[in-house]
Task: inverse folding
């Protein structure tokens, strides 16, 4: 039976394939006569990440030399850049602290308007923030059944990085370098276009996020077998309507190896609802 390293590698590959397929955009051709807006930069020296565009604003993190950041926008003077660091934390860096891509010009980044406290009040189209109406629970998953991991107070703002469905019922937000969580859409004001966010949900093992079409759903109560055969020992049962992570398929296509909670086992493929494209990219194993 495959180990955790196999599951993690497959999870990463499937997630990357589906996300890339949904998010890649056609970019205009670059010519030497054109300046282009940079989309990333490398930190030139260890520097503080601040809550607003200026040294007077609070430090929200620190970046080391060589760290790579995504560039979101600039202040009116073009001397400070609003960036997203690895892990999703956003903040402001002085332009001199970054090395930009060759041919890139920071002054044509989208202008970000900020309030007195440095918090953005208008953002580029690809960026989404939320502001809480009141005290709001932040949960570990997109649903009321998930545990509370933090709370937002009235007026708190955080960047949103994903949504749980096309209806944006739940939004994934970043609180700090180590904490993210889900909030109900109706409890916050959304600043920006939520439809621009990728649709992602937790995988069946809680190890990461995947597009919904990467998961299978049980159409019945399904017995999980140790091997892809009816006479193989039963190691557990998946209840009706549960989402599971497909890991592999049998050579005949009649069995799926899936991960459900702490179990990994084989179930009859016809008892699952799984996107055809997701089925085809599964590795063949067993039989």
Result:
């Amino acid at each position: 039976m495959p180990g955790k390293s196999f599951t993690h590698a497959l999870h990463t590959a499937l997630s990357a394939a589906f996300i890339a397929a949904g998010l890649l955009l056609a970019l205009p051709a670059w010519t030497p006569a054109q300046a282009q807006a940079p989309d990333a930069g490398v930190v030139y020296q260890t520097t503080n990440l601040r809550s607003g565009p200026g040294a007077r604003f609070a430090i929200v993190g620190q970046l080391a030399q060589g760290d790579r950041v995504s560039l979101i926008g600039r202040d009116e003077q073009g001397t400070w850049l609003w960036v997203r660091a690895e892990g999703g934390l956003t903040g402001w860096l002085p332009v001199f602290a970054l090395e930009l891509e060759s041919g890139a010009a920071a002054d044509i980044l989208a202008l970000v308007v900020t309030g007195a406290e440095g918090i953005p009040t208008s953002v580029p189209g690809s960026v989404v923030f939320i502001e809480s109406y009141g005290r709001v629970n932040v949960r570990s998953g997109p649903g009321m059944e998930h545990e509370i991991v933090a709370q937002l107070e009235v007026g708190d703002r955080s960047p949103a990085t994903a949504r749980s469905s096309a209806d944006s019922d739940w939004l994934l937000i970043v609180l700090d370098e180590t904490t993210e969580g889900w909030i109900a859409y109706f409890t916050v004001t959304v600043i920006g276009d939520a439809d621009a966010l990728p649709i992602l949900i937790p995988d069946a093992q809680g190890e990461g996020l995947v597009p919904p079409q990467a998961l299978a759903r049980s159409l019945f109560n399904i017995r999980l077998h140790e091997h892809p055969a009816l006479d193989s020992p039963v190691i557990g049962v998946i209840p009706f309507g549960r989402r599971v992570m497909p890991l592999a398929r049998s050579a005949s296509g009649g069995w799926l190896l899936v991960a459900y909670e702490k179990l990994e086992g084989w179930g009859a493929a016809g008892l699952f609802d799984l996107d055809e494209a997701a089925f085809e990219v599964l590795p063949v194993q067993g039989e």
User: Anything to note?
Assistant: The chain has three domains: 37-112, 129-202, 210-280. The helical segments are 4-23, 276-280. The longest strand covers residues 68-74. Residues 37-112 form a domain with the SH3 type barrels. fold (CATH 2.30.30.40).
